[in-house]
Write a structure and sequence with these properties.
118 residues; 3 helices; two-stranded antiparallel sheet; mainly alpha
Length: 118
């Protein structure tokens, strides 16, 4: 089960890298062009606080939201099913990778993001 999550997380990271290469940001209109309109509730056109990170003023937030819209629900459901199992988790060793360290870093990063949500 943990290998499935690791695979999904690696897929998200891979998509993130590819996404950053083809996303187009237009500063004048503040439109984000990448397939369909996933930002229907956007505040485009309203006065924005530049001290607050949003999908309109930060490419990384746009990329994160695009990735989460594509795979976040699947990753979350998989994580919940692992937690529901309750057993300890063993992660296989893989040369050049430290999955435990990556998951710990991901956890710390998400905790920081959650603490900064407005």
């Amino acid at each position: 089960m943990i290998l499935i999550i690791i695979g999904q997380l690696r897929g998200i990271l891979s998509r993130f890298e590819h996404l950053s290469k083809w996303l187009i940001f237009r500063h004048n209109s503040k439109l984000f062009i990448a397939g369909g309109n996933i930002y229907a509730l956007s505040t485009i056109g309203k006065v924005m606080d530049e001290d607050v990170m949003s999908i309109e003023n930060t490419m990384q937030m746009r990329q994160f939201m695009q990735l989460w819209m594509m795979s976040g629900g699947m990753v979350l459901a998989t994580v919940k099913s692992i937690l529901d199992d309750g057993r300890q988790i063993e992660i296989p060793d893989m040369p050049g990778r430290d999955f435990k360290a990556e998951i710990i870093e991901l956890s710390a990063s998400f905790n920081e993001i959650v603490s900064r949500l407005k």
